[in-house]
């Protein structure tokens, strides 16, 4: 009898439609591994695919605002001001955690790496060595990122640029001797670049960290928990890992 009651309860829960919930978000511009509006439905960006996987996991949930493409600093302001409800995907930092919340399920892992020209014999295996290298020419890093702030805190002289693609071109032209960035992004951009043969990615990982779903500070707890549960299911069934592997 207990078995039949459990089965009946499960069937009834399936019959009840999920409560509708629309959450505001945006796309990050100049970060095509995460958001690539021109790539088509087969590979629209890792974070877009994770977002749609969450919607598929929870049919009553949908995200609005993906037609907006804004730079990272604008994303941060929108989150801090509560003008968007959620954003896929952001790294953590103490400054950021004071302005909004992060859900506990990691979306994917990145490594901090350095790219140099192949004709440059100097190896860089630590931030101290990178700081020494930067005395001649500042290290390139994407503007406004957590990576830029960490380099500055380590006394590395930096030159902030709009995108990693722009930085690769500058590096190839000799305007800088090193580029510091995320492995998953740089691997793709180097493969797509016309100057790929003249560039090499270092083997050292200066840091490893995870990207998360960020939500506005005052998002209701029930909505945050609903998102968390959808992400936990995607983590358990391997969807998050499979999507990350697709973009590596």
UniProtKB/TrEMBL annotation:
Solute-binding protein family 3/N-terminal domain mapped to chain residues: 30-248
Keyword Zinc: no
Keywords, alphabetical: Signal
Signal peptide annotation: 1-18
Database matches in PANTHER family: AMINO ACID ABC TRANSPORTER SUBSTRATE-BINDING PAAT FAMILY PROTEIN, MEMBRANE-BOUND LYTIC MUREIN TRANSGLYCOSYLASE F
Protein name per UniProt: ABC-type amino acid transport substrate-binding protein
């Amino acid at each position: 009898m207990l078995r039949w009651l459990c089965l009946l309860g499960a069937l009834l829960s399936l019959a009840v439609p999920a409560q509708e919930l629309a959450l505001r978000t945006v796309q990050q511009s100049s970060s095509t591994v995460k958001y690539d509006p021109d790539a088509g439905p087969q590979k629209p960006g890792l974070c877009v695919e994770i977002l749609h996987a969450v919607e598929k996991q929870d049919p009553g949930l949908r995200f609005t605002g993906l037609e907006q493409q804004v730079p990272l600093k604008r994303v941060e302001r929108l989150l801090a001001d509560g003008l968007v409800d959620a954003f896929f995907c952001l790294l953590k930092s103490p400054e950021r955690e004071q302005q909004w919340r992060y859900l506990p399920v990691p979306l994917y892992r990145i490594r901090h790496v350095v790219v140099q020209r192949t004709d440059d014999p100097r190896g860089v295996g630590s931030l101290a060595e990178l700081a020494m290298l930067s005395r001649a020419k500042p290290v390139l890093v994407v503007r406004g990122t957590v990576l830029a702030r960490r380099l500055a805190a380590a006394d590395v002289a930096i030159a902030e640029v709009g995108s990693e693609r722009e930085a690769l071109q500058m590096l190839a032209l000799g305007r800088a001797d090193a580029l510091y960035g995320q492995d998953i992004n740089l691997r793709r951009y180097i493969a797509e670049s016309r100057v790929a043969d003249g560039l090499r990615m270092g083997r050292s990982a200066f840091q490893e960290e995870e990207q998360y779903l960020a939500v506005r500070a005052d998002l209701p707890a029930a909505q945050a928990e609903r998102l968390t549960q959808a992400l936990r299911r995607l983590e358990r069934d391997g969807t998050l890992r499979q999507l990350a592997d697709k973009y590596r």
